[in-house]
Structures are given as C-alpha cells and as structure tokens.
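Example record

The entry below shows one chain as it appears in the dataset: sequence first, then structure tokens.
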Amino acid sequence: MSQQLHRLDRRTLLRGSLAGAALVSLSGALAACGAPGSDGEKSGGGTKSASNPFGMAEDGTVDAVIFDGGYGYDYVEFAAGVVGKEFKDADIKVSATTKIATELQPRFVGGTPPDLIDNSGADLIGFSSIAAQLEELDDVFEAESYEGTKIADTLYPNVKSTGTYSDRFVAINYVMTLYGVWYSASLFKENGWTPPKTWDEALELGAKAKAKKKYLWVWGKEAATYYRTLVIDSAAKEGGDEVRLALENLEKGAWSHPVIQGILEKLGEMVKQDMFVPGGAGTQFTAAQAKWSNDQQALLYPSGGWIENEMKDATKEGFEMTGIPEFVLSADSKLPYEAIRAAAGEAFIVPSKAKNPAGGKEVLRAMLSKEAATNFSKTKLAPTIVKDTIPDDGFGSAALKSQSAMLDAAGENTFNFQFYDYYGTNADELVVWNSFLSGDLDVKGLTKAVQGIFDKVADDSSIEKLKVS
C-alpha cells in the first residue's frame, strides 16, 4: 500500500463526514430534563490556569465508567496515568462495563452520575434522553494540551459534528472509526478469491465458500445489528442522500424504499441459501467472530475498524485481516463503491450533575495528548481524532493499513449518520435482526418490524427529534 494513514490530509479523512448534515432541534422537550451548568460556573476545587484549565483539585477524585468493548478500557487507565503526572495526589477510578444504560441510567435519575462516561456499545444511553444533562465540551478543545498546544489545533477537522446535538457540543468522539467488510487476505490468496464489490458478487462468493465447506458470513446475538449497519451503509451508497435522509428523519415507509428492499432481498437470499454459520442468535458475539477470525468457518464479516483489536487474541496466525468498502447493489450507485462511512466515534461525555466534572474533563484532556493518543493507536490498532500519531508502518497492522487505503480511496466520498445512537433503538432491533438472520423472519417481516420501531420513536412527542438535511 503506497499511502500511510498519517499522510492523509484533511480532505481525505473528514470532508463530508456527515454529508453536509445539519442538525436542527425541533423541540425543547429535553429542557425539562435538567439544564447544564453554565461554562465557568463549575469548579473542581482547584485554581484554573493554562496547565489546569478546568480547575481540578490537586487531590481530586474522578469516577470514570468506560464501555468495555472492542477497545477495552486500559487506554483510559493510561490517560489517568498521564493525569497523575500533573496531579500526583489525584485518585482516578476507571471502571468498565458492557451495560452502560442498564447501570448508569439509574445514576442519572438519582443525580449521581460518574464524572466521565464512554457512552458506547449496544446498551448505550440514547442521547435524546440525556443531552440536556451534559456539560458542553468546547472548553476541552480550547484548552492547552499536555504538550502546550491548543487541543483543537492537534485534531482532525469536523470532529465536533458527531458529538453535537441541538447545537450543543456534548460528546467527544475519540476514535476515528470507519465501517467495512473484513476478510483474510491470506485465505483469499490461497483460494484465488477476489473480494466482492457488489451484492451479486458476494452471492457468487458464497457459492464458492459452500464448495469449500465454508460459510460466507457469521454473526453473534449481541452484534446482529452489524448487518443492519451493512444494509444501511450499502443503501446510502446505492441511493444517496434520498435514502439516508429518509432513515435519519424517521420518515414513514423509509424501510420500504426500493434500494433498501433490493439489498434486503440479497441478504435474505443468503440466509435462505444457508450462507451464515448456524446458531448465531445463541452465540456470544466474540465467540461467533472467532469462527471467522480463528477457525475461518466464514469468509466475511461486517464491522468497524475496532475488529482487529477486539479479536487480537482469537485470530489465526498469518490471517492478514483486511477491510474493503461495503457493497453496492448496481453499477449505477449514487456514490462509488469506494465510498465509506467514516467519522469520529466512541462518545465520551461529562454529566453536569457529576461530583467532579472538572476531573472528567481533565481525563479527556489527557486522552487527547500525543502520548495517550499514540498509545491508543499502537495498542488498539485504530486511529484517534489526534493527528500525526501513527507511523508509516501502521505499527505492523494489516487492518490499520487497509483502513488507510480505504480512507485514501474514498476521498470526499465519506458519510455518516447519528440516529441510532441518538434514539437508542439498538436493543429493540437486535431481536428483529437475530430473527431475520436465523431465517425465522422474512424480508417483509423484518421491514414491518424495524419500521415499527422507527414509527414508535417518530410518533412519541416526548422525544426531541433531530432534523437532518
């Protein structure tokens, strides 16, 4: 690969990451949830200065709860160590969970939320329910970094977009995340297979896989909605803004769009032809993924750039994990095959009613240091929003190199959407997608079920809506 990630310029990485999306509040329903503190009113018990921009006390206590997913949580512990160099008497507690909403929503209700939260994973808290209860984080980007440079000047552009709701910047998305289809380059070379670019080519590959007594796909119960992501990303490429915006704006009948139905029919055909490893609805997702990365029972897997790190202890030696863009349906797609969904992800938030918001922000400042960001990319094999932290060799990672190639090939053809994280519908949709991939629900049934979930949110006047244009 001729281009390395650190050489990608601003145009390649993020221009168009939201495809020009503008988020507009349609109601003030969340105002009643509790107004955040005004900038400058919060104090952590210390004296504010360039080296202590949020006024954290020298002996401050910080409670951070981190989603224990593909990236683990040790990288936040590393950042806590960076804070410890400056605040030697600070006590920073970093705890992990896979159940963010289940464990933390009661703490929001009780007025005792943690100081810092990584609001990610299948059980995340929908931003529509907590956005008004969060600190605005503009002051973090305006603060001086641990290296003595304004933090905003060290980051890729437009990274505020995915953390801004109703014109308030309340979530710092730390990881540059792209979505694709992943495969073993060594296995494909061994068999003379070519990675598919269209859904028809994928069906053909599935037939070749069956001839080798292998499957095309695999899934696990907690990650069944990875295939929802694959379908929507593919549809956004095939049908362009018309399809994407209908979904983002919760339009009636959005899931019945011909492009989406065409893709679902292809996926449904794969289910009918037994191209999925059986039993996914009863298999823990990393165990299912190991059937692909370690056992090579399946050829392809749809996921984000976190997949290599997530499966580093369950990947066959010499696997050469490599990513490609998600498929298009036809040669007439509105966006080219090379287009990808790419944006900042892994949302970190600071609740206004936390005991020490200043401490939560200080840990974020440490995470945005060159030292912590480089550690993340080296250990997690994924880029952060901090620029110039990855060397030419990509730390020896085939997956990281392929992410670089995908970003480079996409150029300006990148897009993103926020509505799943905002409305928090993933848990309900998991039930539907597990049934579909198991063959218990056909395309018509899936369409009715997921549209019903959309319509329930759209018709609920208590939920503030995002208007995306």
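Notes for this example: Confidence is low (pLDDT under 50) at residues 1-41. The chain has two domains: 22-176+344-393, 178-341+418-468.
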